[in-house]
Write a structure and sequence with these properties.
The chain has 142 residues and is of the alpha/beta class. The chain has five helices and five strands. It has a single domain, classed as Periplasmic binding protein-like II (D-Maltodextrin-Binding Protein, domain 2, 3-Layer(aba) Sandwich). It has a five-stranded mixed sheet with strand order 2-1-3-5-4, with helices on both faces. The longest helix has 15 residues.
């Protein structure tokens, strides 16, 4: 087999392996679209207007309604980790300890503040990449 044929075969195998990327191990985005709803919690101490702005954008992007509730940060983030909530909206600094356990969206408005300054963000479970990409698209207004 020639060098060109070998390169083309490797490229074809790589492309074939990417059919269902990005992956969503728990099928969050699929479930949200199928059921037409998702679970969102807003951290009580934040500007509800800004939080709802993010949520409405996500609703439009994924074609589903948000079931909203409010609560306290630590409690809600633990529920997010356990998969009982699909999305948490609140103010978080990029260097928050939760940034290692969850995925933070870009800040609302797009301007990234200093790592220790809080900004309004959507927070999602790690690994649910299709869901993360859909929410990120909504937050960025794309």
């Amino acid at each position: 087999m020639g060098k060109l044929a070998s390169v083309m075969m490797v490229a074809a195998l790589l492309v074939a392996g990417c059919d269902d990327l990005p992956k969503d191990p728990d099928q969050t985005l699929t479930r949200v679209r199928r059921d037409g709803q998702f679970q969102v919690a807003i951290i009580s101490a934040v500007d509800a207007g800004q939080a709802v702005s993010i949520i409405r954008r996500v609703e439009q992007t994924v074609g589903a309604r948000a079931n909203l509730r409010q609560g306290h940060g630590e409690e809600l983030l633990h529920e997010l980790e356990q998969g009982r909530i699909d999305l948490v909206v609140g103010e978080f600094a990029e260097n928050s300890p939760w940034s290692r356990k969850t995925t933070f969206s870009a800040p609302l408005g797009g301007q990234e503040p200093a790592k220790d300054q809080r900004a309004m963000r959507a927070v999602l479970r790690n690994g649910e990449n299709a869901w993360i990409m859909a929410v990120e698209k909504a937050v960025r207004g794309q």
